[in-house]
Design goal:
- Helices cover about 45% and strands about 20% of the residues.
- The chain contains 11 helices and 10 strands.
- Strands 3-2-1-4-5 form a 5-stranded mixed β-sheet, with helices on both faces.
- Helix 2 runs parallel beside helix 3 and helix 8 packs parallel to helix 9.
- The structure holds 5'-O-[(R)-(carboxyoxy)(hydroxy)phosphoryl]adenosine and zinc ion.
């Protein structure tokens, strides 16, 4: 089954052609970073306008790269939520129109489920059940995953998402947008033990997260260490971000391992933009191996927003005969 997948939940316009939920024929992502960079974050109105401009060329490019025409496509999968509603509506309206015009079935996909399923694009995916963490700009949620469509949420962030904390700390230090990859890079040469930032845990039995206190600790650190006129020395910046990153990573790793133990599972899956983080990938594998837990993390390009992961989920539902009606709406808070 050839699925054309479309993803426009935030600031990336993505289209992909995926065969049988596994083989990627094309996976095109058009980033809007240059548009939002000067504002230090995504401006929803600009994002949806840009999606409108990009959607036709990006879908066309995905079909061309896959060397298929619409005639060979068996179904369309599109992100329905959660995300920015204006952005979601562009992809969803386009997918519905194409479905109607080409007489193809279409199915709406949950963006969180798509992130959790990105691992199935890899050579050796995990067996069910497993513990799955979605850690992105909008979400930090921990699930027990028993199959496609079978999710039990164990915990989530009570305030900021981990990626949001990365972006806010980078903005505070004037490092640019998006903050995650910048902090990841700077941290390579920073001292992660230089500053002891808090590791919010919310108790041993809770699988919830909280990152706003950690973010405030960075704000306070900066407040009490006034910036000299020539700006912070480069090595201090590296030490601040490296110490901040270490605190986030430590919390994520600890909670995941606790959840695995709690559920008696030996397989864990990381997903979402923050799962592209070098230190998180490294620490997660190190700590899990001590407990003989197997860690699965998609390649970095499948961690950040992309349409191929939407194609994985779309295939699973389309092959079971599940179809969405043309009246399907986008929901910014669509739950999983
Ligand atoms: O999954 P994603 O592309 O979009 C959402 O669904 O939110 O995640 C974007 C988030 C941003 O907050 C970005 O700063 C973060 O993922 N991110 C990273 C890295 N790459 C992206 N955070 C830490 N380290 C990275 N290497
Ligand atoms: Zn995402």
């Amino acid at each position: 089954m050839w699925v054309l997948a479309i993803e426009t939940s935030c600031d990336d316009t993505g289209a992909a052609v995926v065969l049988d939920g596994k083989k990627i024929l094309s996976n095109v992502v058009s980033s809007q970073v240059p548009i939002h960079q000067k504002y230090g974050g995504v401006v929803p109105e600009l994002a949806s306008r840009r999606h409108i401009e990009s959607i036709v060329p990006i879908v066309t490019e995905a079909l061309e790269k896959a060397e298929v025409t619409l005639r060979e496509i068996d179904g369309i999968a599109v992100t329905q939520g959660p995300g920015l509603v204006g952005s979601l509506l562009v992809g969803l309206s386009f997918a519905k129109s194409l479905s109607f015009a080409a007489g193809l079935p279409f199915v709406g996909v949950n963006h969180i489920e798509a992130h959790l399923s990105a691992i199935f694009l890899e050579e050796k995916p995990p067996r069910f059940p497993f513990i799955g963490l979605v850690v992105s700009g909008g979400h930090t949620s921990l699930f027990r995953v028993d199959g496609f469509g079978k999710y039990k949420r164990l915990g989530q962030t009570r305030d900021d998402a981990a990626g949001e904390a990365f972006d806010k700390v980078a903005k505070l230090l004037g490092l640019g947008y998006p903050g995650g990859p910048i902090i990841d890079e700077l941290s390579k040469t920073g001292d992660s033990k230089a500053i002891r930032f808090p590791r919010p845990s919310l108790g041993k039995d809770s699988f919830d997260f909280s990152f706003s206190g950690l973010k405030t600790a960075v704000v306070n650190y900066v407040k009490f260490h006034p910036v000299p006129v020539e700006g912070y020395p480069e090595n201090l910046i590296r030490n601040i971000v490296s110490s901040f990153q270490e605190a986030v990573v430590e919390v994520l790793v600890k909670k995941m391992l606790q959840a695995a133990q709690h559920q008696g599972l030996k397989r864990i899956v990381l997903s979402g933009g923050v799962a592209a983080n070098r230190r998180l990938r490294e620490r997660m594998k190190e700590e899990a191996s001590v407990e003989k837990i197997k860690v699965y993390i998609p390649s970095p390009s499948f961690c950040t927003d992309n349409a191929a992961m939407v194609g994985v989920v779309g295939y699973e539902y389309l092959k079971r005969g599940i179809r969405s009606p043309l009246s399907l709406n986008a929901f910014s808070n669509l739950p999983l």
